[in-house]
Amino acid sequence: MATVVALTSQIAIPISAQTQRGKASFYSKRATGARTSSGERIHHDSLTCAHRSYPFGTLLKVTNERNGKWVIVRVTDRGPHTRGRIIDLSHRAARKIGMIDQGIAVVKVERYNNSKIPYLPEKEDMPEIDFEVTEYTLPENGILHFPKKGKQYKQYVKTVDDDD
Fold it and tell me: Does pLDDT of 57 surpass 60?
Protein backbone atom coordinates (compact mmCIF):
# COMPACT_ATOMS: atom_id res chain seq x y z
CA MET A 1 0.00 0.00 0.00
CA ALA A 2 1.48 3.29 -1.08
CA THR A 3 0.68 6.53 0.63
CA VAL A 4 0.57 9.51 -1.64
CA VAL A 5 1.23 12.86 -0.14
CA ALA A 6 0.16 15.75 -2.27
CA LEU A 7 1.88 19.01 -1.66
CA THR A 8 0.07 22.06 -2.77
CA SER A 9 1.84 25.26 -3.44
CA GLN A 10 0.11 28.42 -2.50
CA ILE A 11 0.81 31.48 -4.51
CA ALA A 12 1.03 34.38 -2.14
CA ILE A 13 0.15 37.69 -3.67
CA PRO A 14 1.78 40.49 -1.73
CA ILE A 15 -0.74 42.74 -0.05
CA SER A 16 0.77 45.73 -1.82
CA ALA A 17 -0.38 44.33 -5.17
CA GLN A 18 -3.94 43.66 -4.05
CA THR A 19 -6.93 45.78 -4.84
CA GLN A 20 -9.97 45.21 -2.67
CA ARG A 21 -13.55 46.04 -3.47
CA GLY A 22 -16.22 46.02 -0.83
CA LYS A 23 -18.27 48.00 1.63
CA ALA A 24 -16.87 50.84 3.69
CA SER A 25 -18.27 52.52 6.75
CA PHE A 26 -17.00 55.44 8.81
CA TYR A 27 -16.37 56.45 12.40
CA SER A 28 -18.90 58.67 14.08
CA LYS A 29 -17.80 62.11 15.23
CA ARG A 30 -18.47 60.84 18.75
CA ALA A 31 -15.48 58.52 18.42
CA THR A 32 -13.13 61.52 18.56
CA GLY A 33 -10.61 61.02 21.36
CA ALA A 34 -10.86 57.22 21.49
CA ARG A 35 -7.62 55.26 21.21
CA THR A 36 -6.95 53.18 18.11
CA SER A 37 -5.09 49.87 17.97
CA SER A 38 -1.90 51.75 17.07
CA GLY A 39 -2.19 53.91 20.19
CA GLU A 40 -3.14 57.10 18.37
CA ARG A 41 -6.29 58.96 19.19
CA ILE A 42 -9.10 59.21 16.66
CA HIS A 43 -10.02 62.66 15.42
CA HIS A 44 -12.93 63.18 13.06
CA ASP A 45 -10.95 65.66 10.90
CA SER A 46 -7.99 63.32 10.29
CA LEU A 47 -7.63 61.28 7.11
CA THR A 48 -7.24 57.87 8.75
CA CYS A 49 -8.83 54.45 8.55
CA ALA A 50 -9.11 51.01 10.10
CA HIS A 51 -8.08 47.98 8.05
CA ARG A 52 -7.68 44.36 9.06
CA SER A 53 -4.40 43.49 7.37
CA TYR A 54 -2.39 46.50 6.20
CA PRO A 55 0.39 47.59 8.59
CA PHE A 56 -0.08 50.75 10.65
CA GLY A 57 1.08 53.82 8.75
CA THR A 58 0.31 52.38 5.31
CA LEU A 59 -1.24 54.86 2.90
CA LEU A 60 -4.33 53.62 1.08
CA LYS A 61 -6.23 55.15 -1.80
CA VAL A 62 -9.97 54.67 -1.26
CA THR A 63 -12.25 55.34 -4.23
CA ASN A 64 -16.05 55.56 -4.00
CA GLU A 65 -17.20 53.38 -6.89
CA ARG A 66 -20.51 55.24 -7.15
CA ASN A 67 -19.13 58.73 -7.86
CA GLY A 68 -15.42 58.21 -8.57
CA LYS A 69 -14.23 60.45 -5.71
CA TRP A 70 -11.14 59.25 -3.89
CA VAL A 71 -9.05 60.04 -0.82
CA ILE A 72 -5.67 58.98 0.57
CA VAL A 73 -5.90 57.68 4.16
CA ARG A 74 -3.40 56.28 6.67
CA VAL A 75 -4.04 53.02 8.53
CA THR A 76 -4.15 53.65 12.30
CA ASP A 77 -6.59 51.04 13.55
CA ARG A 78 -7.71 47.43 13.13
CA GLY A 79 -11.16 46.65 11.85
CA PRO A 80 -13.84 46.96 10.73
CA HIS A 81 -15.37 44.47 13.09
CA THR A 82 -18.66 44.32 11.23
CA ARG A 83 -19.06 41.42 8.86
CA GLY A 84 -19.04 42.32 5.17
CA ARG A 85 -17.04 45.54 5.52
CA ILE A 86 -13.46 45.97 4.36
CA ILE A 87 -12.54 49.41 5.74
CA ASP A 88 -13.66 52.00 8.31
CA LEU A 89 -12.89 55.60 7.38
CA SER A 90 -12.61 58.70 9.51
CA HIS A 91 -15.51 61.13 9.24
CA ARG A 92 -13.53 63.60 7.12
CA ALA A 93 -12.36 60.89 4.69
CA ALA A 94 -15.95 59.69 4.31
CA ARG A 95 -17.08 63.25 3.63
CA LYS A 96 -14.37 63.70 0.97
CA ILE A 97 -15.58 60.69 -1.02
CA GLY A 98 -19.24 61.62 -0.59
CA MET A 99 -20.52 58.75 1.52
CA ILE A 100 -21.86 60.58 4.59
CA ASP A 101 -25.47 60.55 3.39
CA GLN A 102 -25.26 56.90 2.31
CA GLY A 103 -23.67 55.66 5.53
CA ILE A 104 -22.11 52.71 3.72
CA ALA A 105 -20.51 52.82 0.28
CA VAL A 106 -18.95 50.36 -2.13
CA VAL A 107 -15.30 51.32 -2.45
CA LYS A 108 -12.08 50.22 -4.08
CA VAL A 109 -9.09 50.09 -1.72
CA GLU A 110 -5.54 50.00 -3.05
CA ARG A 111 -2.17 50.69 -1.54
CA TYR A 112 -0.90 54.16 -2.36
CA ASN A 113 2.77 54.29 -3.25
CA ASN A 114 4.05 57.80 -3.46
CA SER A 115 7.27 56.88 -5.18
CA LYS A 116 8.02 60.34 -6.49
CA ILE A 117 11.58 61.27 -5.65
CA PRO A 118 11.88 64.80 -4.34
CA TYR A 119 14.11 66.93 -6.49
CA LEU A 120 15.75 70.28 -6.27
CA PRO A 121 14.31 72.57 -8.93
CA GLU A 122 16.71 74.18 -11.33
CA LYS A 123 17.94 77.62 -10.41
CA GLU A 124 15.87 80.36 -11.88
CA ASP A 125 17.55 83.48 -13.15
CA MET A 126 17.29 85.71 -10.15
CA PRO A 127 18.35 89.34 -10.33
CA GLU A 128 21.53 90.18 -8.48
CA ILE A 129 21.00 92.41 -5.52
CA ASP A 130 23.79 94.68 -4.38
CA PHE A 131 23.73 95.23 -0.63
CA GLU A 132 25.61 98.10 0.94
CA VAL A 133 27.85 97.08 3.80
CA THR A 134 27.93 99.24 6.87
CA GLU A 135 30.45 99.12 9.66
CA TYR A 136 29.52 99.63 13.27
CA THR A 137 31.94 101.39 15.57
CA LEU A 138 31.78 101.45 19.33
CA PRO A 139 31.82 104.69 21.27
CA GLU A 140 35.12 105.85 22.73
CA ASN A 141 34.58 104.09 26.05
CA GLY A 142 34.08 100.77 24.20
CA ILE A 143 30.65 100.08 25.65
CA LEU A 144 27.46 100.33 23.64
CA HIS A 145 24.65 101.40 25.95
CA PHE A 146 21.05 100.97 25.00
CA PRO A 147 18.89 103.91 26.04
CA LYS A 148 16.01 103.57 28.43
CA LYS A 149 12.45 103.60 27.14
CA GLY A 150 11.40 106.82 25.52
CA LYS A 151 14.90 107.94 24.53
CA GLN A 152 16.08 107.75 20.97
CA TYR A 153 19.02 105.63 19.95
CA LYS A 154 22.26 107.35 19.07
CA GLN A 155 23.60 106.12 15.82
CA TYR A 156 27.09 104.72 16.01
CA VAL A 157 27.21 103.86 12.34
CA LYS A 158 29.88 104.80 9.93
CA THR A 159 28.92 104.47 6.31
CA VAL A 160 31.49 103.28 3.84
CA ASP A 161 31.77 105.16 0.61
CA ASP A 162 33.03 103.60 -2.58
CA ASP A 163 35.71 106.33 -2.73
CA ASP A 164 37.52 105.08 0.42
Answer: yes
**91 within 8 A of 24, measured Cβ to Cβ:** no
Q: Is the pLDDT of residue 34 over 70?
A: yes
Q: Is residue 87 part of a domain?
A: yes
88-99 as b/e: b if 16+ CB within 10 A: bbbbbbbbbbeb
In a domain, 143, yes or no: no
pLDDT at 132 over 70: yes
Side chain identity at residue 161, one-letter code: D
DSSP state, 116?
Answer: P
**CB under 8 Å to 6, separation ≥6 — which residues?**
none
**Helix ranges, 51-138 (H):** 91-96
Q: What is the pTM of this model?
A: 0.61
Domain that holds residue 48: 16-111
